[in-house]
Specification:
- The chain is of the alpha+beta class.
- The chain contains two helices and ten strands.
Amino acid sequence: MLSTSKATTILPVRDMDRARMFYEESLGLTPTGPMEEGTFLFSDDGRNGIELMLKPDGGPSGNTEVSFEVEDLASELKTLESKGVQFEDYDLPGLKTVNHVAESEAHRAAWFTDTEGNILCLHEIVS
């Protein structure tokens, strides 16, 4: 039923200008424009997107909000680091990163936060 539906992830932000700059300049997402007052949408294909929603008193969930599937994780890490993105390192039960990357049989992944504290991920499927 919903597999062909448009999907938009909505992220809370405390500072719209700061967040927009991060998503446009650091991540290179394509700005579409405001959906309504206090929101801003990014979408390349018009079908899927990320919408920033101004929530001055809100905060992130503390979980991964969005995971971007990439073909070459190492290359994407290098590119984003050159734009000032800082990747996290974890040493938790069931999750340990080495040089910012966690590996399993199915995928490799790395996490970072946006300017508003939302946790974002890059993941590469391992064949």
